[in-house]
Each structure stands twice: as C-alpha cells, then as structure tokens.
Design goal:
The protein has 212 residues and is mostly helical. The chain has twelve helices and no strands.
C-alpha cells in the first residue's frame, strides 16, 4: 500500500465515522423527480432546489404532465435556481424524449441518460447511484476541490479526479463516499475562509502550500 492509498483509507475512515448515514440531500419521490432536481442543482444550492421543486412538482411531477406546461411556465417557476432559460428548455425537451423513446420512464443507463438534454456525466452518475444503486462516483467541482486538497488526485479536471477516486476506493463505497465528501465539505472544508488547522482531514492530509 503506497502513501496515497494509506491516506485514502484513513480519509475514508474519518468520513465514515462522521457520516455513517448519508441521506440524499435533494428531495424527490421517484427517479424522474430526482433527475429534475439534480438538473436544477447545477450552480445552485440543494437547499434552494428543495424550495423550488415542490412548486414545480405540484404542477408536473412526471414527464407527461411536464410537457403540458410551456417552457416559459417552467422557467418562471425555476428562475430562483439560476440558468432558468437553459434548464427550463432542457426539462421540457428531456421529458419529451422520455415519453417518445422510453415510455415515460427514466432509463437505467449511462448512455441513454447522457443523451438527454441538460444531463451530463455527473448528473447521470447521481441518478444511477441514488436512484438505481449502480456504483458511480459523481464528481463535481466541490468534490474535485476536496480530492485535490487531500492529495488524492493531481487531476486538472473532474474527469481525471473521478478516475483517481475510483482507483483508490472499492466500488461498493463509491455511492456513499460521494455524499460523505459533500457533507464534509459543507461542514468542515469550505472553498472560502477555510481553516486547515481545524479541519479533521486537512490538518493531517491536506496540501500545505495550496488550498484551492
């Protein structure tokens, strides 16, 4: 076991002690509502998404009802989440595709999910992990930042970081670790005003000269 593997093991143990339970932070009732919530969470906090989705889902919580709304109606509801012109169009169009190609069901497939408007690899990974229980390691800019801080990756982008984390951790831990890292980042390891000396992980495993 090399140094990086040893650090990864200990970091995993710290995360497991702090967050033995990992509830899904986005409120939803099925795979479709999870997909929409994850799409809305891009560049928006989960807390804000959870305030907006009840308003949207009261009107349409399935693709058949969603396409009865206009893009403008969807946009007016989701505006507080940001990027509403793009997101509203994506929600409408992906709902059409789910009806036309998948009988209104969210497909259990990375390929088909990533073909949907507004759904990239990270969003597809979240849905595969949280809705279908398929091992995935969704890496957004926050997880990328923390993995770099903790010297688990030297990757210059989220794709490389995802590959590095998958190599360091057993597949059975990926789905839970993804959420544990998110929870830890919010509580102990923020992007700004971070105090490495008081962070349970950074004080021992963090980079000494560069915290980004």
């Amino acid at each position: 076991m090399n140094q990086k593997q040893a650090s990864a093991l200990e970091i995993g143990n710290i995360l497991e002690k702090l967050y033995p339970e990992t509830p899904i932070p986005l409120d939803h009732k099925d795979t479709y509502t999870l997909l929409i919530a994850v799409l809305l969470s891009a560049q928006c906090t989960d807390a804000r998404v959870n305030k907006i989705t009840p308003l949207l889902f009261a009107k349409a919580d399935n693709p058949f009802d969603m396409v009865k709304l206009s893009v403008e109606e969807i946009k007016s509801i989701i505006r507080p989440c940001g990027l509403s012109p793009r997101k509203s169009k994506a929600i409408y169009e992906l709902s059409e595709i789910l009806i036309e190609k998948h009988k209104g069901e969210v497909p259990k497939s990375f390929q088909y999910l990533e073909e949907l408007p507004g759904v990239g690899h990270k969003t597809a990974s979240v849905v595969m992990a949280q809705a279908f229980g398929v091992p995935a390691f969704p890496v957004d800019t926050h997880i990328h930042r923390l993995a770099y801080r903790w010297k688990l990756t030297n990757g210059k982008n989220v794709d490389q970081t995802e590959k590095d984390l998958k190599r360091l951790y057993p597949k059975g831990l990926w789905n839970k670790l993804h959420l544990q890292i998110i929870f830890f980042g919010r509580e102990y390891c923020p992007a700004r005003s971070h105090k490495p000396e008081s962070c349970p992980i950074c004080k021992k495993y963090g980079r000494k000269t560069l915290f980004k």
